[in-house]
Amino acid sequence: MLFQPFLSQTLQLVADIASKNFGKVSGTIKSGDSNQVLTQTDLEIGRLIINEIEKQYPDHNIIDEEAGVIDKGSAFTWVVDPIDGTSNFAAGIPTYGIMIGLLENDIPMAGGIVLPAFNEVYLAEKGKGAFCNGEKITVSTQTKLISGLVAYGIDGHQENPQFTYEECHLLAEIVLNIRNLRSSNSVFDLAMLARGRYAAVLNRTSKIWDNVAPHILIEEAGGKYTGFYGEKIDYSQPLSRSEQNFTFCAASPVLHQQLQAIIHRKK
After folding, report:
1. 162 and 108 share a domain?
2. Which cofactor does it need (predicted)?
3. Fewer beta carbons within 10 angstroms: which end of the chain, N or C?
4. 81 annotated as a binding-site residue
C-alpha cells in the first residue's frame, strides 16, 4: 500500500494552517508539565489530520498528542504530533514541524514531516527510501563524530533535579567528542539528520508521537534509530503507550556506534 500521496497532501494542508497562524498565537503551559506548551493551532491541525485519516482510512487507529487515542481495533495506528516544537512556534521561532507516522502492529511503516517555515516536506515508506520535496536524501557519510554537528534535546526535570544534573554531565562528555552542539528540541533537528546536515540527534524525554514518523524517515535515509542506550524501541500495543516516556539516539550506523561508546562509558 502506498501512503506517501496521502501524507504529502495532508501535510500540505496543515502546513498552510500553521503558516497562516505563525507569529499570531500565544501558548499556554500544559497542566503538570512546564516543558509543554499548547496553542489553538495544535488543536486545529490535530482535528484536520484526524478528519483526513478517518476519511481515507476509517478502520485505522489514531494516537494524537492532543486528542488522545482512537481505538478501531486495527493493526494499523496513525501517530500524530500536530505541532512538534510548539514552544518555538508560540514564540515565533521557525524551527517547528508537523509529524504523521504509521505503525503496522509495532513496526513503523510510513512517516511524513513538514517544516512549514522552510517549505520542506519529508516522506518515507518502508523499503522505498526517504525524500525531501521529492528528492532522495541520506544521512551523513561522515565517519568521525568529532567532525559533526550533533543535536541534543533536553528538558528540565524539576520533579527530579538530579536527573537533569546527571544528563548535563553526560551531555558535556558528548560535546567534548563532537564539533558543535545544536538544539531546536524539535523535529527540525531530525530533519537535518535525515538530510545529512547533522551527524546525530538524541533525546531522553519524548513521547510516541515524537518518534514514529522520524524513526521510519531516519531508517529509510540509511540511519539507525534506537532508544538512548542503543536498545530497540518497543512500539508494541501502541494505544497503551501514549503516557510512556520514550528516548532516542539517531545517527548513521558508524556514528551511532561511536555515540553509544560514549554513553555507555558514562552510564
Report:
1. no
2. Mg(2+)
3. C
4. yes
